[in-house]
């Protein structure tokens, strides 16, 4: 799956605030945010948001911590050079507010039609409904623009209620629990699986 860089006419972003225009690279805009591919100049804001112990609490151990400027540059470089869909989420006045991504699940090629959803929001914007809107519209956009995509899945640490709320509001179905699948910082935690298939959003 390649990363489109331009917006099609029927998905044209709406205008931003009077001072800030939604850029032409945005894949869509909502009343709270727009999503666009990362630019190298986003590295500082990404590092500032991601270097947050509260944010990584429910993320996999592979997520860098501390999260340095070099980590941010390396992630942006990865997004530009790999077949993933990864976008920055920006407020309508142009501030970096989070990240959404769809990446191939690790494992067998039998999961060809599946992509794994990842996301986080910058803590200063939590609770404003931005990530709920970003995730919901991103998944719709992904199905609409990638006909080969059959299923989007997300795995969530069981105690991560905010994340489960975001997924439920996007229409994800709770498909089950992997009991004690996660061991992080010596703690054993259940993992909940959420799935969204094309017909969940089109029928
Ligand atoms: C999950 C996350 C993206 C939500 O971001 P956000 O900007 O706060 O999201 P929103 O404002 O759109 O909505 C959050 C929802 O969770 C609810 N919520 C927030 N904290 C909560 C908590 N501790 N318990 C229960 N619900 C909670 C909010 O009330 C809101 O639901 P509502 O709209 O029905 O009231 C953010 O908390 C985050 O980045 N967490 C760390 C990274 C992470 O967990 N990523 C997901 C990995 S699966």
TrEMBL record:
The UniProt record lists the keyword Transferase: yes
Natural source organism: Xylaria flabelliformis
Positions of the N-acetyltransferase domain: 38-190
Keyword Acyltransferase on entry: yes
Keyword terms, alphabetized: Acyltransferase, Transferase
Lineage, top ranks: Eukaryota, Fungi, Dikarya, Ascomycota, Pezizomycotina
Family as reported in the entry's similarity comment: Belongs to the acetyltransferase family. RimJ subfamily.
Protein known as: N-acetyltransferase domain-containing protein
Chain intervals for the UniProt region annotation (Disordered): 1-20
GO molecular function: acyltransferase activity, transferring groups other than amino-acyl groups
PROSITE patterns assigned to the protein according to its UniProt record, in alphabetical order: GNAT
